[in-house]
Amino acid sequence: MEKVNIVTQAQPWVDRFPLTGRYTYGVAGERFFRELKENGRFFGTRCTACDVVYVPPRLYCLRCFAPLEEWVEVPSTGTVHTFTVVHQDLDEAPLPTPEVIAFVQIDGCDGGLVHRLGEVAPEDVYIGMSVEAVLKPTAERQGGLTDIAYFRPTLR
Q1: Which position among 104, 144, 150, 155 has the lowest Cβ density within 10 Å, counted as fewest Cβ atoms?
Q2: How many other CB atoms are found less than 10 A from the CB of residue 61?
């Protein structure tokens, strides 16, 4: 539980990491997921005072507390900021194959999404990897984060 000042001092956590939570869309999230479902596009909100683009979108700026009323389309590409390899499902049953869950910082934005990585072996994932979203077919989208099937590596 010591503070790490140098990234090479970081140690892996080998144990259970119990997390529970519930995400509610809210006004900003509802618009984000509707656009994703209907048009397959990512949107964020932009603070005109701070020039920060938030994804997921927010209703106010975290820096200056100004209301965020400007919606901007953002790319469906990003960079792996951090990741973990998951070996069990939510019921603690072993997965047939390990899955990679990553925080993907969306290009040009101050924020990103936590999601699965696909089309890549866990041992080939690295921080800084360029990725792009792979969406489910339009008919299968339901207006949620799972409308993104996964993020896959790209060459940039």
Answers
A1: 155
A2: 19
Model pTM score: 0.82
Q: The tokens of 44 are what?
A: 């964020």
Q: What confidence tens digit (pLDDT) does each residue in 42-95 have?
A: 999 999 999 999 999 999 999 999 999 999 999 999 999 999 999 999 889 999
Domain ranges of the chain: 25-153
Over pLDDT 90: what percentage of the chain? 77
Q: Where are the alpha helices (DSSP H) in the chain?
A: 26-39
Query: How many helices and strands (H and E) does the chain possess?
Result: 1, 8
Task: Report the phi/psi class of residue 119: left, alpha or beta, with left for phi > 0 and alpha for psi in -120 to 50.
Answer: left
- Asked if residue 32 lies in contact with residue 57, where contact means CB atoms within 8 angstroms, the answer is yes
Asked if CATH classification 1.10.10.10 holds for the domain at 25-153, the reply, yes or no, is no
N residues, the chain? 156
Across the beta sheet with 52-54, the strand order is: 52-54, 42-47, 70-74
**What does the alpha-carbon distance between residue 149 and residue 136 come to, in Å, rounded to a whole number?**
6
